[in-house]
Automatic annotation (TrEMBL):
Entry's transmembrane regions: none
Pfam families referenced in this protein's UniProt entry, alphabetically: LacI, Peripla_BP_3
UniProt cross-references to SMART domains, sorted A to Z: HTH_LACI
Keyword Transcription regulation in annotation: yes
Species in which this protein is naturally found: Spirosoma soli
Record protein name field: LacI family DNA-binding transcriptional regulator
Domain of life: Bacteria
Keywords recorded for this protein, A-Z: DNA-binding, Transcription, Transcription regulation
Amino acid sequence: MEAVTIKDIARALNLSTSTVSRALRGSYEINAETKRLVMEYAERMNYRPNPIALSLKENRSRVIGVIVPQIANDFFSQTINGIEAIAYNRGYHVIISQSHESFEREVLTVQQSVARKVDGLLISLSSQTNDVTHLQELQQKNFPIVMFDRVSAELEASQIIADNYAGAFAATEHLIQTGRRRIAHVTIPAYMSITQQRLAGYRAALEQYGIPFDETLVRHVGFGQHEVDPIVDDLLNQSPAPDAFFTASDRLALGCLAALRKRNVIIPEQVSFIGFTNLLVADLLDPPMSTVVQPAQEIGQVAAEQLIELIERKQKAPAIGTTKIPTQLIIRASSMREKHLV
């Protein structure tokens, strides 16, 4: 099959080639409905711009660097899908790298990406990163950077995140409304942005329902699976023990579920359970797991769009700020309780 061209798209949609070209570039001159029609048709017909010709014309590499902590994480794999969908339709290739939750690896990967002449960088920080000097130095050279999911207030850059606060509030409120009062929150390292946002939502829900915050019910866990079991043991040995678990990531959700099952804890009769995750098989677990779903693909799409706007600067550069994408609470059997409703 011959490659689909801009002329083919224009003919099929009864538009001019210049309109199609501007729509594919995301031009503000084209209305949103026309952009949507063009983008959807281009994706359906597998249209791909010629990046070599474009890079020669514009003196850019037409390559975006993407750095994530771990591709195997469902959230990041879905985010990458969103990034690629936008990037390829705009004529950009994507180079994906992993920091493997290592600050040193992240710094090295950023340096390698710049050395490979990428036009800009999309990055989600590693769990060890609490110093963003390596990114601040790039910004001082006007290098385009957009952060997503795991971000830092110390970097003046566009940030695309899920509404972690609202998601955690909704999860905690649901547990309270089903009669739970001793809600354990198992979360990731305290200095990470997503940890702080989700903890804030958890605390706000407790406060709204007049339940005192108990810091002994909040446990911060690193990224080693061996750390989960002793945390669960310690929580279950409290008097009174937790009557619910709210975890802040899919890895922690699976780890805690396995630990509870090993200890013959019955869910949800003894302990309700809810996760904050993009785990694709949550509804296949036994019992099916209630969860706050993060809009991973949309986060990737918005992040890619904002980075390309920074790179191309066709109009005034996007204002630096935080874009929050709404989360969704999905209630399944792991947190349902018929009696003792508030």
